[in-house]
Amino acid sequence: MIEIKTAAYRRASFALALGSFLVFCNLYMFQPMLPLMAEKFNASAIEINWLLASCTLTLALTLVPWAVGSEIIGRRKVMMLSLFLLPFTGMAMLLTDSLIMLTLTRAVMGISLAGFVAVAVAFMAEEFTPKAFMIAVGGYISANSLGGIAGRLYGGFATQYWGWNIAVIGMAIFSLLGALLVSRLLPEQQHFTPQKGQFRNHNKSVIGHLKQRELWFAMLIGGVNFSLFVNLYTVMGFRLVAPPYSLSISLTSMIFLCYLSGTITAKLSGRWSQLYSPIKGMVLGTTVSAIGMWIAAYDSLYAMVIGLLFISSGSFFTHSLAYAWVSQKAKTAKATATALYLVHYYVGGSLGGFYLVACWQYGSWHGVLVGGMILYGLIYLLCWRLQRFSSSALK
Q1: What's the pLDDT at 323?
Q2: Could you give the CA distance from residue 201 to residue 204 in angstroms, rounded to a whole number?
């Protein structure tokens, strides 16, 4: 097993973090472009949201197949195949200038991204010691947020100054170079046993995980939490490019620097789980995020930035705890369990986009506040239910 503070740990954790960074750069590069792309294709906010939602939705729907495949051929092979597909699917976007075809190509990109996302945490759970695993998960999720920040900033600036085509080419080249580096640094698996010819068992594992309420409630918490987090940023982007602010795409993309607060709290979540209840941490993270949404309601750029910092801090804290909870509580087929968590996570992000964008389109930020509080209330209810079943399991 890979121990913390060793050379093997540093190489492996950096490789996994870099792979995560690449994945989330590609996934979210188009988010700051949405207002500009809506103008380019003469589409509504809800229609243009498909450029982001198609990618996250197909990612969600193909996580379990990738995870099942990793139970047969190994985690590392799946992760590397996923990363090396990115530059090719990225370049395929240049073959069309139609919104429908661009959306479909983004959907294919989601399938490519899903392989790495589906099994990275399972790889860590099997190859790292428990203490090293908890720290590495926090670092991995921090890399998620850094990738999200970098991809969005790059997408916003590159699109405004050079066009979306050049932005796509640059990201494809970067993805290829990054995949080569990950391939060199990521160690071979030492604690994995292939399970060939057991598809029925894998299907049973999926059903078993969903029946285990300690796992399923945590998955739902992750999904609702993400539906709020990522799409509050989307509607904030539409808010800032509209009057009276009328900011440029490049300036608007700067709001994603607020993700940095989530990078910090994702790391802190590992420490929290060692000292306090993870479920109480999820409640705390949800409360911080909800406070941020209300702060952002004020018509002040300073208040919006502070609100987004709160939203990021709370959401990443909750996500890290829920994600680690599923990984640890799953008794078998850990890759399938973590993939199921991420299915809920990204389906929530996809569907939540249409929900909150509609709240914005028809009720401005006041509509977002009402719609958002309904979802925050749902997270509190799920945390309460998770605490009840967790307590019952200990008796």
Answers
A1: 87
A2: 5
Which token pair is 382?
């799920």
What pLDDT sits at residue 367?
95
Exposure string of 36-61, with b = 16+ CB inside 10 Å and e = fewer, is bbbeebebebbebbbbbbbbbbbbbb
pLDDT of 136 reads: 86
Q: What is the DSSP string of 231-279?
A: HHHHHHHHHHHSTTT---HHHHGGGGGGHHHHHHHHHHHHHHHHHS-HH
Q: Which of helix, strand or coil describes residue 128?
A: strand
Residue 328 buriedness (CB in 10 A; 0-12 / 13-18 / 19+):
middle
Low-confidence ranges of the chain (pLDDT < 70): 194-205, 335, 392-395
Q: What is the mean pLDDT of the chain?
A: 89
Read off the DSSP letter of residue 2.
B
| Distances 50 to 16, 32, 54, 60, 353 between C-alpha atoms, Å | 29, 13, 5, 14, 9
pLDDT number for residue 137: 81
Tell whether 151 is covered by a domain.
Answer: yes
Give the DSSP letter string of 342-367: HHHHHHHHHHHHHHHHHHHHHHHHHH
Residue 16, pLDDT score = 95
Any domain includes 184? yes
Q: What is the C-alpha separation between 350 and 363, in angstroms, rounded?
A: 20
Residue 136 lies in a domain: yes
Are the CB atoms for 25 and 36 separated by under 8 Å? no
**Token digits for 213?**
């309420």
C-beta separation of 186 from 79 below 8 A? yes
For residues 287 and 314, the answer to whether their CB atoms sit within 8 Å is yes
Per-residue pLDDT reduced to its tens digit, 104-138: 999 999 999 999 988 898 899 889 988 888 788 87
Domain interval for residue 294: 7-394
Domain-embedded: residue 310: yes
Count CA atoms within 13 Å of residue 1 on its CB side: 11
DSSP character string of 33-87: THHHHHHHTT--HHHHTHHHHHHHHHHHHHHHHHHHHHHHH-HHHHHHHHHHHHH
- Structurally, the chain folds into a number of domains equal to 1
Q: Which of 265, 256, 305, 260 is nearest to 285 (CA)?
A: 265
* Residue 287 CB-density burial (10 A; 0-12 exposed, 13-18 middle, 19+ buried): middle
Which CATH number fits the domain that encloses residue 341? 1.20.1250.20
